[in-house]
Fold:
Amino acid sequence: MLRFARALEFAIREINNETVLLPGITLGYQIHDSCSDVQMAIKCAVQFANGVDPVFNESCSKSVSATVPAVVGDSSSTPSISMARMLGLFGIPQVSHSSSCACLGDKSQFPAFFRTIPSDQHQAAALARMVKLFGWTWIGTVRSESDYGNDGMASFLKAAHEEGICVEYSEAYYRTQPHSKLESVANVIRRSTARVIVAFASIGDMRFLLEELAKPPSPRLQWIGTSSWITQSEFLRYNMCAGAIGFGIPKSVIPGFRDFLLDLSPAQALKSPILKEFWESSFSCSLKGRAAGARECDGSEDIRTLQNPYTDTSQLRFSNLVYKATYAIAHAIHGIVCNDTQLAVYDAINWYKAFLIHLISDSLSLCSESCPPGTRKAVQKGRPVCCYDCIPCAEGEISNKTGCVLQSIMWNEDSCLPKLVEFLSWNDTLAIILMVFSITGAFMAVCVTVVFYKHRASPIVRANNSELSFLLLFSLTLCFLCSLTFIGRPSEWSCMLRHTAFGITFVLCISCVLGKTIVVLMAFRATLPGSNVMKWFGPPQQRLSVLAFTLIQAVICVIWLKVYPPLPFKNVKHYKDKIILECNLGSGIGFWVVLGYIGLLAVLCFILAFLARMLPDNFNEAKFITFSMLIFCAVWITFIPAYVSSPGKFTVAVEIFAILASSFGLIICIFAPKCFIIIFKPTKNTKKHLMGPFWYLDAELQSHKMA
Structure:
């Protein structure tokens, strides 16, 4: 503390010797020792306000005002709080060099308080990040039972919680409390499983605590300290403190300060009770007469030979803050507001002993050890998140930093290898075969369309509702081509496209077949005397029915994609040595509703065609529709168990096969007989032949005339 007083004296001498900062103004000073006691601090504040005789003064004449313009101090936060409340009433500014409690930053309570040390709020956040950086998630804390310790520790605990750090215990102690309290705190530390301890404490409280912990059994701890004690070399004598880390106030150099400290003679020391006491205790002699048990100082004493904190200027930390506080007041007097915008700055301090940096790395402070490969964390009930059990991952999963994930690598005897990713790729032999059939089917549909368009005026084309026939051929072309979307590496767009395209095109196809079947039945009914049924299912109604049936499927697909769309999925359950990359259905309900709607229309079409199969005609289309629907239903009924049981890429192949088989069944059964007559039996492509013994054709032709 003496060096702080001397730093203030040195700064004032510099300021008074300047001709620029305060020209024509001489600063004086009074120095009081509060002994870090609240009552003494309040007494000093009253003396400052009332102008009572100083303990140590210079350049103070009786003509000056009794009150002081500003105060530097106190060192501790609690006395500073008491002083700030008192001095604030008189508007006397107070600049502290080491009162770091964040609470003092509240200008509504302490409007006249300033400081040259950063707030502990910054230090608390930095300490929490340091603990997290070293991976210490299970710690203990101890603090001074004071404003400094309580407020600082509260800030640290909040920051630690945000960093995911768990605290096993948080103890408090103040040096004036009974020794039993100190023993209790020490025993908590000894019994704890946390090997890292954060101490937000003053030098005096740390001194008592370390003395108690040094008694056997002395625990092996990793200390994390604050700026108040982490730079104190006296604590290096405790082995348990080896490797302590923390943040300290940046050390600095004050030019000329060392020479000022050493320029002290016995005559100068006699002028001040504080310096006199320092001189006599340092040299074990008496400056004024022979004291009991002490020799008289003879003038041979040389302060330069001393090795103590007073003469050691290698780490000027708090002394520099006193120096800055004094200059801040001088600038304020001069009318210049201190405008230092620098952020809080600390030095990172690590205590070392001999040549060993003793960070506890061989025994990390953890509530639970890290989970071994192949397991995941499961938080223990009623305990902090840092305390957990390790549970094996499910089959097909491996562990990473966050938990269990799908396994994407496999192991051989000496290394890790990536698993083979399997899907129905474009260069796969099976995929090539399916592509050939798909393109062939689409080509057939286009060829049939060309033949029908070229002979669109022929009886066989007109008799089979040419408009629905062309729409059916268009939908069949799409059915063949949509199977190509199932080939290749699954992606988000391909997974959503393949099922929706398949569902909508097949409904369009079956709707056309259903329309043709209804036309056959309506045509038979139209030939009965007095029947006008065809006006209720003419071409406009046929188009509307196809549109309505298809629109329903489109709505189902849109809902499916919005609620739970199909997306790429890595399946690791079927095989241990490879990953199946496939499209997850997303909503299984959506998929089976799409299939169920197609099946419903197909069954309805089959029933109607079956009812119309015996109608008289040399070319009764209902027979071919019945047979095509029989094939369609058979294919998709067998598809369901095959689809469910097929592993890997064969699941996709089964679905493509079902699409192609049902499409080929429709185009062959419905259009092959007509094309055969058009190309190879043109003599049968006449009205007379198609009408046969009855009236079917006339009714069909009449329906087209009505359009």
